[in-house]
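Bit of a strange request maybe. I'm writing a small parser for structure token strings and I need a real example to test against, not something I typed by hand. Could someone generate the tokens for this chain?
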Amino acid sequence: MNIRPPLVFIALLPFAALNPQVSNVPYGAPIPLEQARTVLAAAQAEARGNNWMVAVAIVDSGGHLVLFERMDTTQYASATVAIEKARTSSGFRRPSKAFQDSVSAGGEGLRILDLTGAMAIEGGHPLLHDGKIIGAIGVSGVTSAQDGQIARAGAAILQ
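Reply from user aminoacidic:
Good idea to test on real output. This should exercise your parser:
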């Protein structure tokens, strides 16, 4: 007799090590462009206030790019990183820092590195409106902690 665990169980194993900060929040309608502009402006204000040059990406609840800006003198590679941080947060319904923390813990947390679409670097944050995820923000260009600070400042404008 061959006893195998259900495939669903196997597929969910990597999530056991994740911080479930936002994972049970339902998706809502995609973020409208005007709200995305408001989020981006708040994030850029936080960055400018600290003299940090960053790239900021806003994706909708499906992970599709809605708005992107790279501040002058920001390294070019930050464009792709910001978009991927935002997609991670939207797709997995949690801040990308949850993945970073799992990897930092080592052991089973290192399985996160094998998840398609999971960027394990702080700087991505879900955007919530009326208790639902309407998108996510991703920031790249300074340290991951500073990217996270900027992303949270952008996300907070909706609350």
